[in-house]
User: What shape does this take?
Amino acid sequence: MDLGLSLDTSLLLVALVPFLAAFVAPFVHRFIRPVSGWILALVPGGIFLYLLGFVEPIVSGGTISAGLDWIPSYDIRLSFFVDGLSLLFALTISGIGALVVLYSGAYLKGHPHQGRFFGFILAFMGAMLGLVLSDSLLALFTFWELTSITSFLLIGFDHGRQAARRGAIQALVITNIGGMFLLAGGILIHQIAGSWDLSAVRGMGEVLRGSGLYGAVLVCILGGAFTKSAQFPLHFWLPNAMEAPTPVSAFLHSATMVQAGVYLLARMSPSLGGTEAWTLTLTIIGGVTLLWGALGSLRQTDLKQILAQSTIASLGLLVLLIGLGTEASIAAMAVYFLAHALYKAGLFMVAGAVDHETGTRDITTLRGLADKMPVTFIGAGLAALSMIGLPLTIGYFAKEEMYLGLIGGQWETALALIVLVLGNALLAGVALLVLIRPFLGDLAPTPKPPHEAPIAMLAGPILLGAGGIVAGLLPDWVGHDVLVPAASAVLGETVKSHLSLAIDLTSPLLWLSALTWALGILFYRQADTMRTLLRRFEQGLGWTADTVFDAVMFGLIRFAGAVTRFFHHGQLEFYLTVVFAGLALAVFGPMFAFGGFDWLVPAADLGDWSKRLVLPGLQPYEWGIILLAVLGLVAVLIAGTRLVAILSLGAQGTALAMIFLLFGAPDLAFTQFMVEILSVVILALVMTRLRLDERDHRPFEDWARDGTLAIVCGAGVSLLLMLVLTGTLDTRLSDFFTQTSVPIAHGHNIVNVILVDYRGFDTLGEISVVMGAGIAILALLRRRKAPLPPRSADPTEPNHRVTEAEA
Assistant: This one.
């Protein structure tokens, strides 16, 4: 049901305000440095509070839309659409974004580029908000690419380190490849459905699934989603993105960037889901990614890398649930997304606090931090409880929903249930590892004396961890305000919530949860052994997707270098030969292929050419100018020196400009005159460095080659023009310019109107090229000769300076 709520610009500002804040953030930080994080956090905080006002109409089953004309001539609008799914993502992005900005103020305190960082992180948030709120496929693609660009800036923020630069480039390359897939998929969807709006496409599932292009659309959409959400085997860029500062990791892994692919799959599920290809692909890839990421977490010892690998596992879990497509699995997806965002952002902030206050993130050297960092330990404990999925946490209800729809099914559902149990158990073991190893036990020495983090760094873990507990204590609220609206938006039908605090001891769900916890404890106790075995396996394998990427990039760079050396070897003469040979082929090829020479044959008498060779009736002075052009051309060919050749070419060009002027093309004439004037100016500038009194001696084969090309190109262009003149002149375009020049462009000079208005961007590009060439020429002219080496006063030395008297 659409409530008919039409918002003018307020909803648009939700996505645009963060970009404005990003622009002013460096200035805000410069002038109010001590509290800049607190002030800038008000932007996402205000957006969060504003979006809370949408909860009531959305929970009631409504939708909210707004937009403005973007490219009206192509019926393209910058439209935004809010339903239960987009509102859940938008609230998570803005809420966690406020805490991340606040956290960044303390974490990067004193960093020389902290103001720039604030700008990047706010733009990152704006891009993700625009993505989840966009109704237009083109707008979604635009924000999709903006998330890639801003994440590149954030991952490579510490650009002085090679690892940061490599991680940023790797993330940009992989996600941009996915962006191209998404663009192609969006275009195909528009061709099939006839609309760019996702709200319209959602109701055309039968049309899309019945189209012959369905397979291509599916590949494109999955390609975009899998690269963005780091699905196996395209997962390798995400751990390398940990080179970014910890606030970026907390935001990227919980609510932004990697969740974009999950959102896209959920949004397209009503349109593309329900087929065997969709279900098998998502469940298999999601399941493999879940287990691969979970095992990868146990292989790591760095806190951020452990959490990064567990994010890969969680993303695979979400994709698996979307692939199953049942009411219970989609409900579990919605609840687990929120649970994961809360505990993962909190745990990353804990990891950053530990690193910030101890100087290390290695769990093999960290021990006993609970006494020195008690508040940080509490935040880690609250988040870890939800990650394990213990009762009275939102993670518990997410896990229960996962198992609900897979009990008592066929072997396919039983296999999916086994994968989910193993994956959740591995993640529970990871949560125990992150909670127990750094904080419990006897205090171990660290590079820095451990102490509690500042309040700005503690607010995030405490509030997010407490949020997971509070949500677990209010299952009715979670079901009514989170599960039902989001799942209903994905499934296209009303979903009922059955979340409850009541625990049924006879329910198989409870026993599956108990099995998950028991296996999680087992995996934690055997973490060191499993780490050793996994690392041996990796060493025995000898290669990973990461090394394959490096090999491909190295080969690509080598190939590009070889192509560049082959085509751009610096021999201008060869370049010109290729260009004019291509021109000759382009002119004569179509004429030979399509009978362009038929007009040369007289219709009545093959030998009678007199009727075709009729001289034009020109005035004597017109013949004189043509004769001057011919004489100038001959003079160029027989010139004895470079100076004579240049002057002869100028005379021939001046005669050509006069021809343009006499035959109704004053604009071309003035352009030609300008060319001749510039030629004289350039000649005057280079006269002192160019020996103009010499003759260029060229071998006969060069004369034959260049002469043949010149004759062929000249004859081809002349024949083409004569062929055009034999046809009927189509004046539709010139009539259009004549009729619309004054009413639309308000210009009486039609040529100027064409250049400035109708071909505005083309002209802008030409001006840019000319400006670039002019700057390059200016740089060359401003170069100073290298000073001569000092000469010796001794006449016997080779560098003896000749004095005026000796001269």
Remarks:
- The CA atoms of residues 261 and 523 lie 29 Å apart.
- The radius of gyration is 36 Å.
